[in-house]
Amino acid sequence: RMLKRQMACRGDIHRLNAPFLAIYESLIPPEEERTKQKQLLALLEKLVCKEWPKAQLFLYGSCANSFGVSKSDIDVCLVFNEDINDKSEILLKLADILQSDNLQNVQALTHARVPIVKLKDPATGISCDICINNVLAVVNTKLLRDYAKIDVRLRQLAFIVKHWAKSRGVNETYRGTLSSYAYVLMCIHFLQQCRPAILPCLQGMEKTYNVMVDNIECAYFDKVEQLSNFGSPNKETVAQLVWGFFNYWAYGHDYANSVISVRTGSIISKQEKDWTRRVGNDRHLICIEDPFEISHDLGRVVDKFSIRVLREEFERAADVIQYDPNPCVKLFAPYVH
Ligand code: CTP
Ligand code: MG
């Protein structure tokens, strides 16, 4: 049964192309949102600069990696050129500064896993989280953005997958399901391993970009304008790729032994990473290697209950696309687990 599924999707799969593309188009943020984000960033830069003239602000996450849908919050990172031992002190100071400039709902969350200041800008209506010295996130944001420039099908696939994950309630790390960042890496991996490949492995190529962050070498080929024809030998459409993606995670992936690795452009073994058993809270039930922080499994939030939810949702999605007469409605039907 599995083999048959892997070989053939429904013959009328192409009929799903137009509706998937319509969903993708409807989720793309309009240009005026970009303008407002820049406006808010400029305001924050002005305020921060007064207090810390040498600090810099960077956008990261979905507002900068090109996988952000309309009306998302923005993620900002405040970078000092030195190690900060006491982030709380800086965050409280920052909250103070922002508060006195009429920004709304300013809140310093100093005890969060990633300590941040939250705020809302009344002028643009945008909410924003500011963290400190999270340079790896700024760098992995660039990696995702660079992958997105190579073939538009990555962005199309990832928008559909993120939209599905949010609708189905499986994009909640605090409840044991996966982050948006993890889903985008799963999409990149899928497009690297299909044949002919739609995406290359940028970290396996000549290193035209190279930075050291927290003692980790972050290096890869970033002249991606040169790769704009890379995926063209593969003619698959977004409908086929969405089907292939869910089929891969439902019936094709070896959960017991495999780690997906965008860094190497392939599958590596759990054995090789020593991710074969639970260590502390890391259970390694679905293994997604971070491209730079390679000791970091983005599936570590998944527990023995949520792995079942996830795998059932992958199977449901694959089956809906395969058999349902109206898959586009059913696939995104809101659900709370
Ligand atoms: N990030 C990370 N490691 C994680 C999770 C997130 O480095 N385990 C960083 C990544 O740079 C990511 C950013 O934090 O781009 C934001 O993560 P997330 O909220 O998962 O992704 P977004 O792209 O912002 O998605 P959404 O549209 O759902 O906000
Ligand atoms: Mg985000």
Automatic annotation (TrEMBL):
Coiled coil: none
Highest taxon above the source species: Eukaryota
Protein's name according to its UniProt entry: Uncharacterized protein
The organism of origin for this protein: Hibiscus sabdariffa (roselle)
Parent-protein start and end of this portion: 381 to 717 of 718
